[in-house]
Amino acid sequence: MRLHADTVDQVSQRVDIVDVVSEHVVLRKSGTAFRGACPFHKGSNASAFSVDPKRQMYRCFNCQAAGGAIKF
Predict the structure, then answer these.
(1) Sign of the C-alpha dihedral, residues 32, 27, 61, 71?
(2) Exposed, middle or buried by CB within 10 Å (0-12, 13-18, 19+), for 51?
(3) Phi and psi at residue 35, in whole multiples of 5°?
(4) How many domains does the structure of the chain reveal?
């Protein structure tokens, strides 16, 4: 079953990406973003996974995983 695009937009606007990701990853504040170990691959570079609360996006610069709260 697919969700209607309006429903996805409404959920995305109401959810805080930092709250969602921090349920699975220990995040540390780093400037305006948060950093932690990427949950999508085994790696020791905790600075490669970034969560941007302003843009409501996450990204791993090692494995290239990226998206918003719904995709996470």
Answers:
(1) negative
(2) buried
(3) -125, 150
(4) 1
Residue 58: how many CB atoms within 10 A of its CB? 28
CATH number at residue 53: 3.90.580.10
**What six digits make up the tokens of 5?**
């695009």
Range of the domain at 44: 5-67
| pLDDT score, position 70 | 85
Has residue 72 been placed in a domain?
Answer: no
pTM above 0.70? yes
Question: Please, are residues 37 and 25 in contact by the beta-carbon 8 Å criterion?
Answer: yes
Q: What is the pLDDT of residues 2-46, one digit of tens each?
A: 878 888 788 778 889 999 999 999 999 999 999 999 999 887 666
Asked, for residue 54, whether it belongs to a domain, the answer is yes
